[in-house]
Amino acid sequence: MLLCIGPVLDKGVVDAATAALTAGRFVDGRATAGWYARTIKENLQADPQDDRLAALRRTLADTILRNELFQMAVRPRRLSPLSLSRYEPGMHYGAHVDDAIMGELRADVSFTLFLSDPAGYAGGELMIDGPGGTQEFKLPAGSLVAYPSTTLHHVAEVTSGVRYAAVGWAQSLVRDAARRELLFELDTARRTLFRQSGKTGAFDLVTKSFSNLLRMWAEP
Ligand code: NI
Questions:
Q1: What are the tens digits of pLDDT across the range 151-190?
Q2: Cα(188) to centroid of ligand 1, in Å?
Q3: How far is it between the farthest Cα atoms of the chain?
Q4: N or C, where is the chain less crowded by C-beta within 10 Å?
Q5: How far is the CA of 154 from the centre of ligand 1 (A)?
Q6: Residues within 5 Å of ion ligand 1 by Cβ?
Q7: Residue 183 C-alpha to ligand 1 middle, in angstroms?
């Protein structure tokens, strides 16, 4: 399941992020790419020594983890440290699948948090391949798309302006994407039932099914 969530950040946080990113130090993104990704990755990433950008990475991760829709769709057990990327004209990231294991973390869900106003740059779409074709994402600053880490995806070349984004990975309590989707829909349905009619017998039964499926599938 691909899910766009927005906005995850309010305008004040986007403005503070923009100020930190504009003043921040960036280094060649190939430094953190695996052996084959080095041949197709052409972007810049936050210098790990830049304390202000390190603080921004933590703030963004905390904000994403608190987001209710993200919790419902991803069921995060933990996140990898976020990566902040900068694409200048001519930069892109070719087709790749994200690493399965990152240190102690199994990457189940990948996400991109867009940090630049889409009107400020051309190109730079996140393109995700799926059975129905390739889907393009270029979201407002502060919005996020989450997608299974199992997919092939790429970032189209930026042809003008500058594109900033935060990318990250979650290990989910529920490894299987189809099960995560089923839980997301049941959780959404029970919340809708509650809003419409309160704590009815139908709400109780859907909540029971949701909770017991989560109990059956969760790997804490
Ligand atoms: Ni990727």
A1: 999 999 999 999 999 999 999 999 999 999 999 999 999 9
A2: 28
A3: 58
A4: C
A5: 7
A6: 98
A7: 25
